């Protein structure tokens, strides 16, 4: 299997909350790949129909008008506790490094009126990952004219920070087999369908400035690692999902053998080939619609998230392990080109 969750440092987070420096040089990410200005909004959504309650964190990236964006600040990449978590994981315990990171999305800027009816894409993160480590891809898609919904999946997300300051973690399990991942995929599908249903309720618009109705009768699904498998499972379970992308994730559950009739794109790291991943070979053969299997040279599994770029900018001397790979900036461009061409 391709995904293995990271170790995390939750006890250290509590110790380090007061360690950030008073002044920080802000790091602006690479230019967006599309021409549109973008906004972002985040909120907590509670699914009480499932016990224990699923407390979901959701972020939505969307096109916004340049004339109004100037009145709204750029959003930070992370909340204060996620800053500390990211410092522990990526920045080699250089506390305060992650707090320098900003998006190119304007926090709570109103959606551009002429882009209310653009395609909506649901983006599921990798197993053990938070949605916040996929903001780069989501921003680039939004700048190319899409509305992108990202979410955290409780229980299998390493660190979730909620608006009231509480956080949720998970217990890493190194003994999980292929069958153990199927319930995680099922819960993820349920999470996303719940978010989709909530967005369908016009009286509770989640995007600032939204006057009309989102186009939710035909939507797209994509994800990295287990999120890519989730995208395929969504398409098998709900006909509203008409196209999907799996970025470098092994396949689990019924969709592996049943396949799909909708268009589906597989994006892989340089070493991920169907000859070495039986689940991909089985799934690819079961796809009856348009399909492609594309590998990106000089990449590894985690490079489909933001972590490659974060490693490039947060580690003072870079990461020697990345010297033989693409830069994070280059990976953003390649990833965006394939996703925009497909969707």
Automatic annotation (TrEMBL):
<keyword id="KW-0443">Lipid metabolism</keyword>
<keyword id="KW-0442">Lipid degradation</keyword>
<dbReference type="GO" id="GO:0003847">
    <property type="term" value="F:1-alkyl-2-acetylglycerophosphocholine esterase activity"/>
</dbReference>
<protein>
    <recommendedName>
        <fullName>1-alkyl-2-acetylglycerophosphocholine esterase</fullName>
        <ecNumber>3.1.1.47</ecNumber>
    </recommendedName>
</protein>
<keyword id="KW-0732">Signal</keyword>
<dbReference type="InterPro" id="IPR029058">
    <property type="entry name" value="AB_hydrolase_fold"/>
</dbReference>
<dbReference type="GO" id="GO:0016042">
    <property type="term" value="P:lipid catabolic process"/>
</dbReference>
<keyword id="KW-0378">Hydrolase</keyword>
<dbReference type="Pfam" id="PF03403">
    <property type="entry name" value="PAF-AH_p_II"/>
</dbReference>
<feature type="signal peptide">
    <location>
        <begin position="1"/>
        <end position="25"/>
    </location>
</feature>
């Amino acid at each position: 299997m391709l995904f293995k969750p990271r170790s995390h440092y939750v006890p250290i987070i509590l110790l380090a909350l007061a360690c950030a420096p008073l002044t920080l040089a802000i790091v602006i990410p690479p230019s967006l790949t599309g021409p549109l200005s973008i906004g972002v909004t985040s909120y907590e959504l509670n699914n009480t129909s499932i016990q224990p309650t699923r407390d979901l964190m959701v972020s939505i990236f969307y096109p916004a008008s340049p004339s109004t964006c100037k009145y709204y600040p750029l959003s930070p990449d992370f909340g204060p506790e996620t800053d500390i978590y990211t410092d522990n994981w990526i920045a080699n315990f250089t506390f305060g490094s992650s707090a320098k990171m900003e998006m190119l999305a304007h926090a709570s800027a109103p959606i551009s009126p002429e882009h209310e009816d653009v395609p909506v894409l649901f983006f599921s993160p990798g197993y053990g990952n938070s949605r916040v480590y996929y903001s780069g891809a989501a921003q680039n898609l939004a700048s190319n004219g899409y509305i992108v919904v990202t979410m955290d999946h409780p229980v299998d997300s390493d660190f979730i920070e909620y608006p009231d300051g509480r956080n949720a973690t998970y217990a890493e399990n190194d003994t999980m087999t292929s069958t153990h991942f199927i319930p995680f995929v099922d819960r993820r599908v349920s999470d996303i369908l719940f978010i989709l249903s909530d967005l369908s309720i016009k009286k509770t618009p989640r995007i600032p400035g939204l006057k009309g109705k989102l186009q939710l009768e035909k939507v797209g699904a994509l994800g990295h690692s287990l999120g890519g498998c989730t995208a395929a499972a969504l398409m098998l379970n709900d006909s509203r999902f008409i196209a999907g992308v799996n970025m470098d994730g092994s396949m689990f559950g019924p969709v592996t053998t049943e396949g799909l009739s909708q268009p589906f794109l597989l994006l892989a790291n340089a070493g991920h080939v169907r000859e070495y991943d039986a689940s991909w070979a089985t799934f690819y053969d079961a796809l009856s619609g348009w399909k492609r299997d594309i590998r990106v040279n000089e990449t590894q599994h985690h490079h489909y998230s933001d972590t490659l770029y974060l490693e490039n900018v947060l580690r003072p001397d870079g990461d020697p392990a990345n010297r033989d790979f693409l830069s994070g900036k280059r990976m953003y461009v390649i990833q965006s080109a394939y996703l925009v061409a497909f969707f």
